Amino acid sequence: MSEAVAIPDMIVAGGTLLTSDPSRPYIREGWVVISNGRIQGIHSEEPVQINPATKVIDANGYVITPGFVNVHTHAILSMVRGVAEDMGFAPAYTVGVPHGHDLNPDEAYAMAQLGGLEALLFGSTIINDSFTHQNIALPAMAETGIRAWGCGRIHDVDFTRVHLGEWTYNTEIGEQTLREASELIEENYDPINLLTGVVLAPHAPDTCSPDLLRQVRKMRDDKGLRINTHVSQSQVEVDFIRERDNMSPPELLEDVGLLDDRLI
Questions:
Q1: Residue 172: what pLDDT?
Q2: 86, 87, 128, 183: least buried by Cβ within 10 Å?
Q3: Strand boundaries in 74-136, DSSP class E
Q4: Does residue 1 have a pLDDT over 50?
Q5: pTM beyond 0.90
Q6: Per residue in 49-84, is it b (16+ CB within 10 Å) or e — as a string?
Protein backbone atom coordinates (compact mmCIF):
# COMPACT_ATOMS: atom_id res chain seq x y z
CA MET A 1 0.00 0.00 0.00
CA SER A 2 1.50 3.32 -1.05
CA GLU A 3 2.08 5.99 1.56
CA ALA A 4 -0.23 9.00 1.36
CA VAL A 5 1.42 12.20 0.20
CA ALA A 6 0.90 15.09 2.63
CA ILE A 7 -0.95 18.09 1.27
CA PRO A 8 1.36 21.14 1.46
CA ASP A 9 0.28 23.89 3.81
CA MET A 10 1.83 26.54 1.61
CA ILE A 11 3.51 27.02 -1.76
CA VAL A 12 5.60 30.10 -2.51
CA ALA A 13 5.21 30.35 -6.25
CA GLY A 14 7.20 31.81 -9.13
CA GLY A 15 10.00 33.66 -7.33
CA THR A 16 13.71 33.60 -8.15
CA LEU A 17 15.32 31.14 -5.71
CA LEU A 18 18.87 31.49 -4.38
CA THR A 19 19.71 27.90 -3.47
CA SER A 20 23.19 28.00 -1.80
CA ASP A 21 24.00 25.03 -4.05
CA PRO A 22 27.21 25.77 -6.05
CA SER A 23 26.09 23.40 -8.81
CA ARG A 24 22.83 25.32 -9.21
CA PRO A 25 23.09 28.68 -7.46
CA TYR A 26 19.68 29.97 -8.49
CA ILE A 27 16.39 28.94 -10.05
CA ARG A 28 14.94 31.68 -12.23
CA GLU A 29 11.34 30.73 -11.55
CA GLY A 30 10.84 28.35 -8.67
CA TRP A 31 8.31 26.94 -6.26
CA VAL A 32 8.91 26.32 -2.56
CA VAL A 33 6.71 23.65 -0.96
CA ILE A 34 6.10 23.91 2.80
CA SER A 35 4.42 21.38 5.10
CA ASN A 36 4.08 21.49 8.87
CA GLY A 37 6.21 24.62 9.03
CA ARG A 38 9.16 23.05 7.19
CA ILE A 39 10.40 23.35 3.62
CA GLN A 40 9.74 20.01 1.93
CA GLY A 41 11.20 20.82 -1.47
CA ILE A 42 12.08 23.40 -4.09
CA HIS A 43 11.10 22.91 -7.73
CA SER A 44 11.81 24.56 -11.06
CA GLU A 45 8.40 23.68 -12.45
CA GLU A 46 4.93 24.53 -11.25
CA PRO A 47 3.19 21.62 -9.51
CA VAL A 48 0.80 19.83 -11.82
CA GLN A 49 -1.98 20.02 -9.27
CA ILE A 50 -2.37 22.27 -6.23
CA ASN A 51 -4.86 21.33 -3.56
CA PRO A 52 -7.48 24.04 -2.87
CA ALA A 53 -6.57 23.83 0.84
CA THR A 54 -2.98 24.88 0.13
CA LYS A 55 -2.16 28.56 0.60
CA VAL A 56 -0.32 29.94 -2.45
CA ILE A 57 1.84 33.06 -2.18
CA ASP A 58 2.62 34.73 -5.51
CA ALA A 59 6.36 35.53 -5.41
CA ASN A 60 6.70 36.59 -9.04
CA GLY A 61 9.17 39.48 -9.19
CA TYR A 62 10.67 38.62 -5.78
CA VAL A 63 13.92 36.92 -4.73
CA ILE A 64 13.64 34.07 -2.23
CA THR A 65 16.78 33.43 -0.19
CA PRO A 66 17.75 31.00 2.56
CA GLY A 67 17.28 32.56 5.97
CA PHE A 68 20.11 34.84 7.08
CA VAL A 69 21.96 34.14 10.33
CA ASN A 70 22.56 37.18 12.54
CA VAL A 71 25.63 35.94 14.40
CA HIS A 72 25.99 38.85 16.86
CA THR A 73 23.36 41.28 18.02
CA HIS A 74 21.77 42.84 21.12
CA ALA A 75 18.02 43.03 20.52
CA ILE A 76 17.27 44.93 23.72
CA LEU A 77 19.69 47.67 22.65
CA SER A 78 17.09 48.77 20.11
CA MET A 79 16.29 51.21 22.92
CA VAL A 80 19.37 53.33 22.11
CA ARG A 81 19.32 53.10 18.32
CA GLY A 82 20.45 56.36 16.79
CA VAL A 83 21.56 57.70 20.17
CA ALA A 84 24.65 55.92 21.46
CA GLU A 85 26.37 56.04 18.07
CA ASP A 86 26.67 59.81 18.35
CA MET A 87 27.83 59.79 21.99
CA GLY A 88 30.34 56.98 22.29
CA PHE A 89 31.19 53.59 20.82
CA ALA A 90 29.04 51.21 22.87
CA PRO A 91 26.24 51.94 25.36
CA ALA A 92 27.92 50.12 28.27
CA TYR A 93 30.86 52.53 28.00
CA THR A 94 28.80 55.66 27.31
CA VAL A 95 27.54 58.23 29.81
CA GLY A 96 24.00 59.55 29.42
CA VAL A 97 22.24 56.59 27.72
CA PRO A 98 20.13 53.79 29.20
CA HIS A 99 22.03 50.64 30.16
CA GLY A 100 20.92 47.01 30.37
CA HIS A 101 20.75 46.99 34.15
CA ASP A 102 18.29 49.92 34.01
CA LEU A 103 15.52 47.90 32.31
CA ASN A 104 12.68 46.16 34.10
CA PRO A 105 11.44 42.73 32.88
CA ASP A 106 8.47 44.13 30.92
CA GLU A 107 10.70 46.55 29.06
CA ALA A 108 13.21 43.79 28.31
CA TYR A 109 10.43 41.57 26.93
CA ALA A 110 9.10 44.32 24.66
CA MET A 111 12.53 45.30 23.31
CA ALA A 112 13.52 41.66 22.72
CA GLN A 113 10.35 41.04 20.70
CA LEU A 114 10.98 44.21 18.69
CA GLY A 115 14.51 43.02 17.92
CA GLY A 116 13.28 39.58 16.87
CA LEU A 117 10.57 41.01 14.60
CA GLU A 118 12.99 43.43 12.96
CA ALA A 119 15.45 40.59 12.33
CA LEU A 120 12.69 38.55 10.67
CA LEU A 121 11.71 41.51 8.48
CA PHE A 122 15.31 41.73 7.32
CA GLY A 123 15.33 38.03 6.45
CA SER A 124 17.14 36.53 9.43
CA THR A 125 15.74 33.23 10.66
CA ILE A 126 18.38 32.66 13.35
CA ILE A 127 19.58 35.32 15.80
CA ASN A 128 22.50 35.08 18.23
CA ASP A 129 21.80 37.58 20.97
CA SER A 130 23.69 38.49 24.12
CA PHE A 131 22.77 41.09 26.71
CA THR A 132 20.96 41.36 30.02
CA HIS A 133 17.63 39.66 30.84
CA GLN A 134 18.30 36.70 28.52
CA ASN A 135 15.98 34.45 30.54
CA ILE A 136 13.26 36.80 29.28
CA ALA A 137 14.72 37.77 25.90
CA LEU A 138 15.32 34.30 24.41
CA PRO A 139 11.75 33.00 24.82
CA ALA A 140 10.35 36.43 23.89
CA MET A 141 12.27 36.40 20.59
CA ALA A 142 11.34 32.76 19.94
CA GLU A 143 7.66 33.73 20.22
CA THR A 144 8.08 35.81 17.06
CA GLY A 145 8.98 32.66 15.09
CA ILE A 146 12.72 33.28 14.89
CA ARG A 147 15.26 30.75 16.18
CA ALA A 148 16.76 32.57 19.16
CA TRP A 149 20.19 31.67 20.52
CA GLY A 150 22.27 33.67 22.94
CA CYS A 151 23.35 34.20 26.53
CA GLY A 152 23.36 36.78 29.25
CA ARG A 153 26.61 38.72 29.23
CA ILE A 154 29.17 37.01 31.46
CA HIS A 155 31.43 39.41 33.34
CA ASP A 156 32.91 40.14 36.73
CA VAL A 157 33.33 43.88 36.28
CA ASP A 158 30.78 46.16 37.96
CA PHE A 159 28.88 47.36 34.89
CA THR A 160 27.19 50.14 36.82
CA ARG A 161 30.61 51.91 36.90
CA VAL A 162 32.16 51.14 33.50
CA HIS A 163 30.51 54.07 31.71
CA LEU A 164 32.19 56.27 34.34
CA GLY A 165 35.59 54.87 33.39
CA GLU A 166 35.90 52.59 36.41
CA TRP A 167 36.81 48.90 36.04
CA THR A 168 36.22 47.17 39.39
CA TYR A 169 36.14 43.37 39.44
CA ASN A 170 34.03 41.36 41.86
CA THR A 171 34.14 37.56 42.01
CA GLU A 172 30.53 37.47 43.24
CA ILE A 173 29.39 39.18 40.04
CA GLY A 174 31.32 36.63 37.99
CA GLU A 175 29.81 33.73 39.94
CA GLN A 176 26.33 35.17 39.46
CA THR A 177 26.67 35.63 35.69
CA LEU A 178 28.09 32.10 35.30
CA ARG A 179 25.22 30.73 37.38
CA GLU A 180 22.70 32.59 35.21
CA ALA A 181 24.35 31.13 32.09
CA SER A 182 24.07 27.63 33.54
CA GLU A 183 20.39 28.18 34.37
CA LEU A 184 19.78 29.50 30.84
CA ILE A 185 21.26 26.29 29.41
CA GLU A 186 18.92 24.21 31.56
CA GLU A 187 15.84 26.24 30.62
CA ASN A 188 16.42 27.22 26.98
CA TYR A 189 18.88 24.85 25.31
CA ASP A 190 16.78 22.96 22.74
CA PRO A 191 19.04 20.61 20.74
CA ILE A 192 16.07 18.80 19.17
CA ASN A 193 13.95 21.56 17.61
CA LEU A 194 16.73 24.21 17.73
CA LEU A 195 14.21 26.95 18.50
CA THR A 196 16.31 28.31 21.36
CA GLY A 197 19.87 27.64 22.42
CA VAL A 198 22.87 29.01 24.24
CA VAL A 199 26.17 30.44 22.97
CA LEU A 200 28.23 31.49 25.99
CA ALA A 201 28.96 35.22 26.01
CA PRO A 202 31.87 36.56 28.06
CA HIS A 203 31.32 40.24 27.38
CA ALA A 204 34.84 41.40 26.51
CA PRO A 205 38.47 41.04 27.63
CA ASP A 206 38.32 44.23 29.68
CA THR A 207 35.06 43.38 31.47
CA CYS A 208 36.20 39.86 32.38
CA SER A 209 39.19 38.98 34.50
CA PRO A 210 41.54 36.32 33.06
CA ASP A 211 40.37 33.91 35.75
CA LEU A 212 36.72 34.35 34.74
CA LEU A 213 37.61 33.79 31.08
CA ARG A 214 39.22 30.48 32.05
CA GLN A 215 36.05 29.50 33.92
CA VAL A 216 34.03 30.29 30.79
CA ARG A 217 36.36 28.08 28.76
CA LYS A 218 35.78 25.23 31.22
CA MET A 219 32.00 25.65 30.99
CA ARG A 220 32.27 25.73 27.20
CA ASP A 221 34.22 22.48 27.18
CA ASP A 222 31.98 20.78 29.77
CA LYS A 223 28.77 21.74 27.93
CA GLY A 224 30.06 21.44 24.35
CA LEU A 225 29.04 24.99 23.45
CA ARG A 226 30.49 27.88 21.46
CA ILE A 227 31.65 31.31 22.59
CA ASN A 228 30.48 34.73 21.43
CA THR A 229 32.37 37.84 22.57
CA HIS A 230 33.66 41.30 21.72
CA VAL A 231 37.37 41.86 21.19
CA SER A 232 39.41 45.02 20.50
CA GLN A 233 36.27 47.15 20.37
CA SER A 234 38.18 50.34 21.03
CA GLN A 235 41.58 51.80 21.71
CA VAL A 236 40.45 52.12 25.33
CA GLU A 237 40.09 48.34 25.59
CA VAL A 238 43.38 47.64 23.81
CA ASP A 239 45.31 50.05 26.06
CA PHE A 240 43.57 48.74 29.17
CA ILE A 241 44.46 45.09 28.43
CA ARG A 242 48.03 46.07 27.57
CA GLU A 243 48.36 47.67 30.99
CA ARG A 244 46.47 44.99 32.94
CA ASP A 245 47.80 41.83 31.26
CA ASN A 246 50.82 42.97 29.23
CA MET A 247 49.33 41.63 26.00
CA SER A 248 46.74 42.47 23.35
CA PRO A 249 43.08 41.40 23.66
CA PRO A 250 43.45 38.60 21.04
CA GLU A 251 46.61 37.40 22.80
CA LEU A 252 44.67 37.27 26.07
CA LEU A 253 41.95 35.14 24.48
CA GLU A 254 44.61 32.80 23.15
CA ASP A 255 46.32 32.68 26.56
CA VAL A 256 43.10 31.58 28.32
CA GLY A 257 42.24 29.04 25.61
CA LEU A 258 39.35 30.78 23.86
CA LEU A 259 40.93 31.79 20.54
CA ASP A 260 39.93 28.82 18.39
CA ASP A 261 37.29 27.63 15.93
CA ARG A 262 34.60 27.63 18.64
CA LEU A 263 34.85 31.41 19.04
CA ILE A 264 32.42 33.74 17.26
A1: 98
A2: 86
A3: 124-131
A4: no
A5: no
A6: ebeeebebeebeeeebeeeeebeebbbbbbbbeeeb
